[in-house]
From TrEMBL:
Organism this protein belongs to: Adineta steineri
PROSITE patterns in UniProt: NHL (PS51125)
Record-linked Pfam families: NHL
Keyword Transmembrane annotated: no
A molecular function (GO) term: zinc ion binding
Coiled coil location: 83-125
NHL repeat placement: 440-470, 495-526
Domain of life per record: Eukaryota
Protein keywords: Coiled coil, Repeat
Protein name: Uncharacterized protein
């Protein structure tokens, strides 16, 4: 590094001494200051070596974790958002297709019923000939072919981009041409739509499937329940101002009035069947009607006593009524009050539900249990409760309305425990799926829950009776959300007063028995 010279001036101390020349900086240093100068150079070298080591470690880490950069996270976020958007729209298309298919079925069913009535008439009157039979055969063939063809429903692909494309752009100065490299990811420009007559189309993109891409794997591999919950379609929202579709003319027993309505049932033609409890009758309100018609009770010869629930048994073409005050469950055939049958006796019943196999479930609020009955049973099979009144998981306290899903899981409004319990098939105890945090009005609590129904996404709707609102819970959530009735007790269209029964129509509009206001409110699904 340095060579010795005769006495010259030191660069540091400016004294005449034997000095040493530094070839790096070409300065002269006496020995002490040469040593000091050397130490400074060594320190600089160590700094460079340390910087070199840190950079080397950075390169190693980048090689090992090359997919953890913020750019990859941006790509992952784009992919997730695209998947959510695709799956949401796909679900909307499925729901639209279900509704359109149901509309087609209803239309065909109406034509078939009319044809059946005519066929029955000529058979009873014994007035027909070969021409009549030929005409009937032609009409039946036409209806059958029209139903099987379903040609008025189709899937349409729109020629527009549905998902915004992203690009990876990089410029490398070391390349001979200093060129720019661009790699682009995008979806196909062919969304699909489900369309039917005047219905608005709903678009969903098709994606070029590549079995090795994460997008393909995410969409085709089974998802965990948590992941499914994250990507499911958004929850339904409802307009907050309800429409009065039955009653609403004060408390009374006139045909345009109700008194403390309880359970309700919505038919396919949107007729509403109501357990008009304190009028001791079942009434039917047709769509857009100003008055109801009595189909059960309401007279001296065939009395009901405080009916609380009603359902329709498709298999037997009959209504089943919880005649609570008479301690029985009865069946009405063809809306004929004279043709009734007591199917369960000596039961303090409140709620009814029926599963896909035709088994009837009845809540017994006196014995704090729910039993399942099949036709002809003398004593139903216990499915929930019967462990005395209490708040343990195997107990109930005043069970009211109930609902059974396609998996035979039973949902019970456990009124005095201020919770909704779910009892899976053959379970020895239930789990809390709503409330269960004492009586109160926070989003974690319920107060004397009544009506309970579950939608196709497994979301649980509860008539929060004493809080004058309808809540929605998802199993596993710590708190629910207010669906309608967040404006306190009252008679305004955006208020409820002691809500009881709940039901959906085939368009997923929500119906609420607003017992304290003696009316039925319809809350239309908000599509915006």
């Amino acid at each position: 590094m340095a060579t010795v010279n005769k006495k010259t001036q030191c660069f540091v101390c400016n004294k005449e001494k034997n000095t040493y020349s530094c070839k790096g900086c070409s300065n002269e240093f006496c020995f002490p200051h040469l040593t000091e100068h050397r130490q400074k150079i060594d320190t600089q070298l160590e700094t460079i070596i340390n910087d070199h080591g840190r950079f080397q470690q950075t390169i190693i880490q980048q090689k090992q974790n090359s997919h953890n950069s913020s750019l990859f996270r941006q790509i992952d976020e784009w992919e997730t958002n695209s998947i959510n958007k695709i799956q949401q729209t796909a679900e909307e298309c499925r729901e639209t297709l279900i509704k359109l298919t149901q509309a087609l079925i209803n239309d065909m069913e109406e034509k078939f019923i009319k044809l059946s009535q005519k066929l029955k008439e000529i058979r009873e009157e014994n007035e027909f000939n070969e021409t009549d039979l030929t005409n009937f055969q032609v009409k039946l063939t036409q209806i059958t072919e029209e139903f099987l063809r379903s040609s008025n429903i189709s899937i349409r692909h729109d020629s527009q981009e549905y998902i915004n494309k992203i690009s990876v752009i990089s410029s490398f100065g070391s390349y001979p041409t200093n060129h720019t490299t661009i790699s682009t990811a995008t979806t196909s420009k062919n969304p699909i739509t489900t369309s039917y007559k005047s219905h608005f189309p709903i678009s969903v993109p098709t994606i070029p499937w590549n079995p090795i891409t994460p997008l393909y794997k995410m969409l085709t591999q089974p998802q965990s329940p948590i992941k499914q919950k994250q990507i499911q379609t958004k929850k339904n929202k409802f307009q907050q101002f309800g429409i009065t579709v039955a009653g609403g003319n004060g408390k009374g027993d006139e045909l345009n009035q109700l008194t403390n309505p309880q359970g309700i049932f919505i038919d396919y033609d949107k007729s509403i069947y109501i357990a008009d409890q304190w009028n001791h009758r079942i009434v039917k309100w047709e769509l857009n009607s100003n008055t109801g018609q009595i189909i059960g009770g309401g007279n001296e010869s065939n009395q009901l006593n405080s009916p609380t629930d009603i359902l329709f048994d498709k298999e037997n073409n009959s209504f089943i009524i919880c005649d609570m005050g008479n301690n029985r469950v009865i069946r009405y055939y063809n809306q004929n009050q004279t043709n009734q049958q007591t199917i369960i006796s000596n039961i303090i019943c409140w709620g009814l539900t029926i599963d896909k196999d035709g088994f009837l479930y009845v809540s017994d609020w006196e014995n704090n249990e729910v039993r399942r009955w099949k036709q002809g049973d003398k004593k139903g099979e216990l499915v929930a409760g019967e462990n005395g009144k209490g708040n343990h998981f195997n107990q109930l306290d005043y069970p009211t309305f109930i609902f059974v899903d396609k998996d035979y899981s039973l949902y019970i409004s456990d009124n005095e425990n201020h919770r909704v319990m779910k009892w899976k098939k053959d379970a020895k105890e239930g789990i809390i799926v709503a409330g269960g945090n004492g009586q109160g009005n926070s989003l974690k609590q319920l107060s004397n829950p009544q009506g309970v129904i579950v939608d196709h996404l497994g979301q649980i709707y509860v008539a929060d009776f004493s809080n004058h609102r309808v809540m929605r819970w998802c199993e596993g959530d710590k708190e629910g959300e207010i669906v309608v009735g967040e404006n306190g007790s009252g008679i305004q269209s955006n208020q409820l007063n002691w809500p009881t029964g709940l039901s959906f129509d085939d368009e997923e509009n929500l119906y609420v028995a607003d017992a304290g206001n003696h009316r039925i409110q319809k809350f239309v699904i908000d599509l915006n």
